[in-house]
Design a protein that fits this description.
single chain; alpha/beta; 2 domains; 5-stranded mixed sheet; two-stranded antiparallel ribbon
Length: about 525
């Protein structure tokens, strides 16, 4: 049997458990049709949030638009780090470029990927949960995940792709930690790191777990060394294979600068990229369409990372019911995975990043509910009630809320934000695909415009480097760019006031004043500047 498929089966054979001296875990098996039904219903649930019936995709706003825009540049022959700047490893750009190559540049692709991501994560989470939790409670972590954090962050960025790979690694290792399984898990972590470089921490986390397990099970040092090498060599080999083309084309020094030096020195310049972002971005009560995001925001900030600390304390002080040796190891593996997932986002714990690293916390929460069932029965019932309400309400809200449609170069698209609708409509009436443009990655992708700068947008902080501003001015002049997007945050951003020495935009403001005029000001203050030699 294929090792990955084997790793996701119900459990190790009795003879392996006897050899290990571990009593088998006796859990109530799920019905044979329950897993496919769960996955299919989850896919339908997500589809009804990212598509307006019958099949119109919603606008791919948010951070995903950055990667979609990058993918179109890669499709046109440009290369990350060489022709355009970004701070993550290139996995997301490569994936979307491949999808665009296969299917064309269409608005439905990121939304379809959200359906695939959500359904895959539900399947993986359930396969993990059923190894520790019996009965209907085994379904709770997957349903909580899809109803709350995933649906509150429908943004197909690198985070979700990394999470799929790490969750697959956890599922593989949950049964047994043989060298073969560790090699497959290491490959999964390597793939996760290809999307998000901080996921390399999971290789360290799994290695530390192997050391802990070695001490618990009194294994030989030779076996421990074999396991560690299987994990780490597979991880490093997979990552090296994924990155080799970019190292060859761009050079290791350039990649190191953008993915390590820039991240350490300049990425935290924006308040939302450092610890100040914690507990910000709360859903607004005056907007009824965001009410369903409130439970996710509250639960994730309560759980991550506190549930890992709670479990660790309870483990060492023996608060939890007695478990078999294998159950203890599985729980500790989930706990360590969750802790290291949290560490990947701890420097900038935005609510969205906490959502992405939440699956291990939800699994431990459900296990705690079941292990303390006499005390937690009411809380468990309330949790189920909340899940069912959200599962019903979210698709309904998506389908009945205000929306507008536009036929764009990327296909017919549904807009839920009047401001974004106005921007895209105004620009679509004045541009054609492949026109030169600068300042807004969402408009560039949606309208198939060619961004002329090394960066898709500017920031009034050290996040935007002086050389990137100079490159943008040179490109505006060279290509005689007709339209430039200038959003209000470039003038009002609080970090620009607090740290004016990091604002490098004075020269491009001066260039715009000399060569452009304001052609359109939108309701929130965002502007489109038009070159003086052009007319509407």
């Amino acid at each position: 049997m294929h090792p990955i498929r084997e790793a996701l089966q119900n459990g190790p054979p009795p003879q392996c458990q006897q050899i290990a001296g571990v009593a088998p875990l006796v859990l109530r098996p799920s019905l044979p049709w329950s897993t496919p039904a769960l996955v299919v219903l989850s896919a339908i649930f997500i589809y009804l949030q990212v598509f307006v019936l019958p099949c119109t995709p919603r606008l791919a706003s948010g951070d995903q638009a950055i990667y979609l825009h990058h993918a179109t540049r890669m499709l046109a022959g440009e290369l990350i780090y060489r022709d355009y700047d970004h701070f993550t490893f290139p996995g997301t750009d490569v994936l979307y470029a491949a999808l665009f190559k296969l299917f064309g540049v269409h608005a439905w692709i990121p939304q379809a990927m959200l359906v695939v991501l959500g359904a895959t994560l539900v399947w993986l989470i359930f396969r993990i949960s059923r190894k520790l939790i019996s009965g209907t409670t085994a379904y709770l972590p997957a349903l909580l995940f899809i109803a709350l954090p995933f649906s509150s962050y429908l943004d197909a960025t690198h985070h979700w792709y990394s999470l799929v790979a790490v969750t697959a690694a956890l599922a593989i290792l949950l049964e047994r930690r043989t060298p073969r399984r560790l090699a497959w898990a290491g490959a999964c972590v390597g793939i996760a790191t290809f999307f998000t470089q901080s996921m390399a921490l999971l290789a360290i986390g799994f290695a530390l777990f192997l050391l802990w397990e070695h001490n618990q099970a009194a294994q030989s040092r030779t076996l421990l060394l074999t396991k560690q090498l299987s994990l780490l060599l597979s991880f490093s080999g997979t990552l090296a294979a994924c990155m080799s083309y970019f190292v060859w084309k761009v050079g290791l020094k350039q990649i190191w600068y953008y993915t390590v030096v820039f991240v350490a020195k300049y990425y935290p310049a924006d308040w939302f990229n450092n610890w100040h972002v914690y507990l910000t971005g709360r859903p607004q009560l005056h907007a009824w369409t965001t009410w369903l995001d409130l439970p996710a925001f509250a639960l994730m900030h309560l759980l991550v990372p506190s549930v890992y600390v709670l479990f660790s304390i309870g483990y060492f002080f023996r608060w939890w019911p007695t478990q078999s040796g294998e159950e203890r190891r599985r729980l500790m593996l989930i706990n360590i995975t969750g802790l290291f997932l949290f560490l990947t986002v701890a420097s900038a714990p935005a609510y969205s990043r906490l959502y992405v690293v939440s699956p291990p916390a939800l699994i431990l929460l459900a296990w705690i509910f079941q292990s303390r069932i006499a005390r937690q029965r009411l809380l468990l019932r309330l949790t189920w009630l909340m899940v069912f309400v959200v599962l019903f309400a979210r698709p309904l809200v998506t389908q009945i809320r205000w929306k507008a449609h536009l036929d764009l170069p990327t296909g017919r698209t549904a807009f839920f934000d009047p401001l974004l609708y106005d921007k895209c409509k105004w620009m679509s009436e004045r541009t054609h695909p492949s026109d030169y443009f600068f300042g807004d990655h969402l408009l560039a992708f949606t309208l198939r415009l060619r961004n002329v700068g090394r960066v898709p947008f500017l920031r009034p902080t050290d996040y935007t480097r002086p050389e990137e501003v100079a490159d943008a001015i040179q490109a505006l002049d060279k290509f005689q760019v007709r339209f430039v997007s200038w959003y209000i945050g470039l003038d009002r951003e609080k970090d620009a006031v607090r740290h004016p020495e990091g604002n490098h935009l004075a020269s491009i403001r001066q260039y715009l004043l000399q060569h452009y005029h304001v052609a359109k000001t939108f309701a929130n203050g965002d502007q489109i500047w038009q070159r003086n030699s052009e007319s509407n």
